[in-house]
Design goal:
The structure is a homodimer. In chain A, 41% of the residues lie in helices and 16% in strands. Chain A contains twelve helices and seven strands. At the A-B interface, helix 1, helix 8, strand 3, strand 4 and helix 9 of A face helix 1, helix 8, strand 3, strand 4 and helix 9 of B.
Chain lengths: 329, 329
């Protein structure tokens, strides 16, 4: 019995020291010790400290993240657009009319799709054609297969490898401090869900995105949800606070974005009472990633940048504030 | 040191015995030891037993519950309709035209509203008038005030006291076994969220319901979400699997309802592979609650009952299977 108790005491001591190590270790090792990292840590310590005037109970520790350009890259085109183009090509033989019907004809006749100029309306038409007319289960399978094999044209990496290491650490750090992390993206909700749990640790029920209409029906006696070629919800710009309200039903206390598409989410988040964190990732690292902002066609950062400066939101320079960009570096 | 270790050992022994007590205690004390209770426990033990062929990993343990008639009562009228009627009365002085305009005129001139016959279209008109034109925050406040004070006409209890004790135990039992519990109700999502966390332990982000359109706008420089008088989504019947897919993004393994409005949710849940639990609460206890089913105007249980019998779903007789109905009994 004595030996057992000694063992027990030793185990306790080990556990206690392991806990101390965890506590002492840098939770954000890929972040330089510059202002953004300090702002994040100060915010988290403030809202999690019991008795502090800024303390926030766990259920209210909601953090929302944009995806394209915030958690993973978005150049030279949104990865979902690349997926849609691959689908259009795969489906082309079943749609001979596409050879002469824009925007499909433009896509199918241009070798490098990133140079094809498509309007927003045409883009929606392409995505609808690529994503509708099948069941949610079939679509899930198609996305899962594509995401496991398609490679980025510049890096040759899987798209799920083109995620930002500092943001993965930030997600984990927030969750370790009792936050519930959500994606709030203009991207398709059904396009993200098959892989966000594995890649970001964010389960499908915490993914908010744009969506097409679904229809419940019986097919050979089995219920299915058919994806209809009709837009139901666009989770971008003023749509983001609406998506947050619809899916979460309470206001985030922290929000993370990179473009004007995130402005309203940041406004909505910071308009609540108590401590708030609003953070914008600025793509200014042409060597390790891409450099683009006010004039970019993708991920325009203009109005949101001005408002960030005016209101003291945290702006992250990928070049100055991140030690590492991608996990594979 | 020796004393300390002895204390430690004693504490350990206490904790261990407390855990055994928790394990041995009946998790569903308000359920009689009849078939439904046995089916629930057998299902939970099967899907949580590591190594069992029916084992389901925690993130996939999704359980969905209808609200009206499944978690709380729905007679003599849906509680939300009572709320809407109270709103119409409160707003009547601002709308003199309602005195002569149906359906408002009918409501305002009838002393006992439960006797007013309104069509579904009229009902929607009433709800829209009662719920729109204000911000989500204002609406939240109005609901919170109402739910804290309005009394049920028959029992004189608060509406949140008219919840089913056996279902509260079931929610807690499932969560203690790693399930995530969701509400999937035809009721308004913004009507339920202000109180579901306190009453059922279900946070707002796990509440799915019918919704009106929202619009993000700036009001005196502050962002608000305005409730528009336009239906966005009806989370009933074939809408329930759609709502589940939109909000959860994976199929439940257990679903609980009481009426034909839940049929498609039960079909969708049971059509997945692996162990599934589908349960219907049958209101057959006129003494302790109400007795109604096939011919009822509210909570019609007809087709879903037939399908439950044909497919071996669990049907709960409130009279036979529940020791207690309401917590206040």
């Amino acid at each position: 019995m004595k030996i057992k108790l000694t063992k027990l005491a030793r185990t306790f001591a080990l556990v206690a020291s392991a806990l101390q190590v965890v506590h002492a270790a840098d939770p954000l090792p890929s972040w330089n010790d510059t202002a953004p990292k300090k702002a994040i840590i100060a915010f988290v310590e403030k809202v999690t400290k019991a008795g502090s005037p800024d303390f926030v109970p766990e259920p209210e520790r909601i953090a929302t993240f944009d995806n394209d350009g915030t958690l993973w890259a978005e150049q030279p085109m949104y990865f979902q657009l690349r997926f849609a183009l691959d689908r259009v090509k795969a489906l082309a033989s079943q749609h001979p009319e596409w050879k002469t019907k824009p925007p499909f004809s433009k896509l199918l006749s241009t070798p490098k799709e990133e140079n094809v100029a498509v309007s927003e309306k045409e883009l929606m038409e392409i995505i609808m054609a690529a994503h509708a007319g099948i069941t949610t289960e079939e679509f899930n399978k198609i996305v899962s297969d594509w995401i496991a094999s398609a490679k980025h044209p510049k890096t040759g990496k899987l798209y799920t490898e083109m995620v930002y290491q500092p943001m993965l650490e930030l997600l984990a750090y927030l969750r370790a401090n009792g936050f519930k992390t959500f994606i709030v993206s203009g991207g398709g909700i059904e396009f993200m869900r098959p892989w966000t749990e594995k890649v970001y640790g964010i389960p499908p029920e915490q993914v908010i995105g744009s969506s097409g209409k679904l229809k419940f029906e019986m097919r050979d006696g089995r219920p299915v949800l058919m994806k209809l070629p009709e837009v139901s919800f666009v989770d971008d710009k003023a749509g983001k606070p609406v998506g947050i309200q619809l899916h979460i039903g309470r206001r985030p206390i922290a929000a993370f974005g990179n473009s004007d598409g995130d402005l309203q989410m940041l406004q909505w988040t910071t308009a609540g009472s108590g401590a708030r964190l609003a953070l914008i990732v600025h793509h200014d690292d042409a060597a390790r990633e891409w450099a683009y902002d006010r004039k970019s066609r993708i991920g325009t950062l203009d109005k949101a940048w001005d408002e960030a400066v005016a209101r003291g939101w945290t702006v992250v320079s990928m070049k100055e504030d991140w030690k590492r960009v991608f996990p594979f570096e």
